[in-house]
Amino acid sequence: xxxxxxRSRPLVAADVLMVGPVVELLERRVLCHDGPGDFFFGDRGSxxxxxxxxxxxxxxxxxxxxxxxxxxxxxxxxxxxxxxxxxxxxxxxxxxxxxxxxxxxxxxxxIDGKIYVFGGFAKDADGEGPVARSxxxxxxxxxxxxxxxxxxxxxxxxxxxxxxxxxxxGGYYGTQPGTYAQVFGSNEVWRYNVxxxxxxxxxxxxxxxxxxxxxxxxx
Length: 219
Prior knowledge:
This protein is mainly beta. The protein has strands at about 30-35, 35-40, 105, 105-110, 115-120, 120-125, 125-130, 135-140, 145, 155, 160, 165-170, 170-175, 180-185, 190-195, 200. It has no helices and 16 strands.
């Protein structure tokens, strides 16, 4: 069982600490209970708790304020030079050989400097509507030449060129010459070769499409 020690408490003025934080004046002794006997911890005449005096406690210093970062100035953009008469390219339009028939929404490809025109809508002896007729224009000679007709009267087809091959994917196609009767969407894919002037069927699209684009990637 712990024992209580009763001692008289004479009034003693505690020394004022000169180093470290100011410590509140306390009793000059600390009574601890530990084990079979009670004992005093620290200097009985110091009037302070020992672990609060130097060197146990260092003075608390104010933190150094973090300087505000200086904003980086925005670089002044370089002005775009105005074109001059010396580097301006003048555009001039001139008349060339007319197309063999009037067309709208035709499919086109450019190979070896020649312009290939496939299908589209046209007006001919049969009437007006989608056509399968195809032609090629040679700017060097300013002449048109007829090439093999498309397998169907196509329009709104995705077109991509790979060397001397032209690929056609999906699209609308006419079902009755001289009219606008059409199937609005196809899964058919065709390849036209300019050297052989022939069309070859290719693997079909997963579903019928029209009005889309096509591109060769990885060449």
